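idk why but the lab printer keeps eating my pages so im just putting this in chat instead. protein + magnesium ion:
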Amino acid sequence: MNIVVMGAQWGDEGKGKIVDYLAADAGIIVRFSGGANAGHTIVIGGERYALHLVPSGILYPDKTVLLGSGMVIDPEALFSELAGLEAKGIDWKGRVLVSDRAHIVLPSYRRLDKEAEARRKKPIGTTGRGIGVAYALKASRDGVRLADLGDPSRLENLEAEDRAFIEAWRERLAPMSVDLVSYLRAHRNLYSLFEGAQGALLDIDTGSYPFVSSGMSCSAGAAAQGGIGPRRIDRVLGVFKAYTTRVGNGPFPTEFADDSPGSLSQYIRETGNEYGVTTGRPRRCGYLDLVALRYACAANSIDRLVLTHLDVYDELESFEACVAYRVRGRLAEDFPTAVRDLEDAEPVLRTFKGWKRSIAACREYDELPREARDYVAFIEEYVETPVSVVSVGSDRTQTIVRESPWTRS
Ligand code: GDP
Ligand code: IMO
Ligand code: MG
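predcted complex ->
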């Protein structure tokens, strides 16, 4: 069985935690998109792991994890991350494999990324990891894949700095290189998880362009770049928070206008620890945007949802969620394509009653307060998609499974 786990908002929905949780029942975990722009956090008994390139699933000693063809990989960042895991007692050798079709991020890309940002009148707020440059060179057919590293004719046009970088890392990368399609074909009887990075709204095609990342973080990315075809995907899980966050620039209709000390925005940022794992930037916060979530479900054929961070609302008397937009006076129930329409979109909000007690220890759905279950029921009805998992804290164990995603329906 093959399950895709993707972000259904603007990233940082808790994908790492959910992939780690579901990986207990998987044999293989493939990360299909992005690069070191991602930051996926896993917490186990107070120990915190921040992953950027290595797929979540690495923390189990018996799982093989693969960096997929759609990824753009900075070897320096990869080996520094692996060294960090080793220092925490994680034995990764022999079970971290990299698709030979994945592209390499070279030192000049990071510089070009920052230069492009400096030139933009409206910067995107990139992570500065060279991601957009790597995908642009891939599309213009000037990129360097793992499979190219031993072929001098593929490296002729590179700057000396980039060639020296490749020299420095080639030998260490070579034993990890694998033909992903053949590998997955040979292991097709194992349960596989396909881990997305970023989210539906940061995808190059379905996201809020141009304020997006440059990879395929949509579910189709798992098929195109994860080493399998679309018909082999059995389920698409969309992970979303009880509210919305965004890091970097770009339109965000439900963003809280007031971010002053004591505001709800700051309360959510502090309670939910909403600071970027990769850059440390404070994340922008706002209410749940159901218009955007319904769009994400439709664009990605998400058939089950995973709701995270419900516990962050524990102390609120009431809260709201966006059920439509008003764009320059006109009511809109579909997610707009034009940046200007998204910028002008004012949320139409519906109010929900809070539950005013901690749900952090709940492990069964029925243990959740009625108000919390009412919120979930409203979301399910609005987006016409069942919520099968609810996360009530960052720890691996703080997870409520209503229906196992591994159950075939
Ligand atoms: P990812 O990029 O989608 O993997 O998400 P990040 O790791 O960037 O951000 C999610 C943050 O929320 C991390 O600090 C997680 O440890 C934390 N987290 C995940 N699920 C929950 C949850 O249900 N409740 C709370 N309070 N924190 C969570
Ligand atoms: P995870 O996997 C949140 C955002 C950046 C910026 C835009 C483009 O942890 O959810 P890039 O460096 O990719 O060219 O930046 O995309 N961005 C993310 N935001 N979570 C992520 O990954 C992100 N990866 C990129 O902040 O706005
Ligand atoms: Mg993240």
